[in-house]
Specification:
mainly alpha, two-stranded antiparallel ribbon, 23 helices, 1% strand
Length: 607
Amino acid sequence: MEPLVCIAHHCVAGFNSFLLLVHQTLFMSAADWIVLIITLTGIVAYGLYKSRTTKNIEGYFLNNRTMPWYIVLLSIMGTQASAITFLSAPGQAFTDGMRFVQYYFGLPIAMVILSITFVPMFSKLKVFTAYEFLEQRFDIKTRTFTSALFLLSRGLSTGISIYAPSIILSSLLGWNIYWVNIFMGGMLIIYTVSGGAKSVAYTQQLQFVIIFAGMFLAGYYIVHQLPAGIGFSDALKVSGAGGKLNAITTGVSSKGFDWKDRYNLISGLIGGLFLALSYFGTDQSQVGRYLTAKGLTESRVGLLMNGLVKVPMQFFILLIGALLFTFYQFKSSPVFFNSSVPAKVFTGQFGDSLRSVDSAFKLLNTKQNLYATNYVNAYKNNNTAISVLYKDSISNANTQMDGLKTHYKALLKKADASIDTNDTNYVFLRFVIDNLPKGLVGLLIAIIFLASWGSIAAALNSLASSTMIDFYARFKRKLPHPSVTDIEEAKKYHLSKWFTLGWGLFCVVIAEFSNRMGSLIEAVNVLGSLFYGVMLGIFLVAFYIKRIGGTAVFWAAVIGEIIVIVLFFLDKAEIIGIGFLWFNVVGALAVIILSSLFQAFASKKAF
């Protein structure tokens, strides 16, 4: 009977938690709740409506390859632009400037390369997953290893993507993070399991329209709420004075190139190119998007348009963060943007110290308001000397304010080690909650959910397709080369839904352990960089070095992955300094070089 007592206890506790959640979120207006609920339920209903498709795995995973290029484009963009993009990127620009945009500079080049090489091959072979091609080119162990790398990396990163929007309700509305993760995962699993690739693609189309409408409105209100006489161009001037418009940086200083600098022109073009080639050429969550196209031309156009649109899109999102920096030069800024710090922290032994730092920050923020106002007036009056003086004052004040923020976070960590002191992810959300009108708050919160659902739904669909095609269908019957028709079509279709559900539950579990990871947009990209380089190296060998066989490339990939993991931990321990984008280059080159050596020095019989 004890297990039943425990279950009953947890049910009562869960119900009490739910009542507490309702009570804590009453400050949201009725209009906000109406907009939020209608938007989210509307998307789920639309996804279920569009889920009517052929009851076979080609319909479930690839929508019978019938998508036009513009749906392919929106599906590709919706898959890569998760809630992390809209949640964390503005905070990234607010704290570090717009140099993160350089991370995407290699993407347009990658789209051209993929359209010429990878896409025609995948289209010609009519594959379900990218990894089927590897068995035809190499052998089963190389296919299985690469698919396993994908499942591991995508499964973990999707868990982080579920956690990202859960921060909204848990931290800003006072909701329990564990219940929110379950709610977030459960809602999107419903239409992903039911509809497959078709519901994913068409809901992403609608989501993008809503998302960009909301983001433009947010940008408008940032500028609209600035003091009278301060317009958009003035806001950019202030952002530039604070060093936030640093969209182009070389990474080169008087000491030479800084390899640990994560975002610069060189790492973006080279490391970003390798990462984009890996992501769009070897990650099934993206390959599966353009495999749904009507034909080769539709796939190519979708990819190439993505290369043209993605950089300006990311620039705009980061620009919102730079404008937020200007906003808080003229308005009162919190020393810590995560408003969910427990009250006990301020009544404990560090309470007086925290209040002291907060007071010093507010005083400096007041001076900052004066500096920003005088700077705008000076350059409007063409008083160069005075404008330079106040520009320096803005920069110096921000340096001091950053120091106070760092000290405040250190005190918070001492007071309560469970507090997430990296508040980059909360900057944009705090502005939304504190400053936007009723109704628009609900829309912006809904946008974070929608962006999350778009990328997560595509990821779950791709995880299920790789599990079904590369593992279950491949190994179900012990034949040399079983085809997907070896298992009854109806059984495969229903099993695919169960695989989707299983991966959804796995990702929810990962989300429960994704706290304290710092900037989520960095975390998910660092995670991808641990695997993508090696995966790309395997495909590059497959396409361009025909003399290398399966065993050589398999062991090169295993060793290459070990090298990347070792470099990651050495970098974490600060024994070496290397930006995470370079992991992609190292992984790819390791596979190419090692496989060439193994093939050259091994006997033809062994390899």
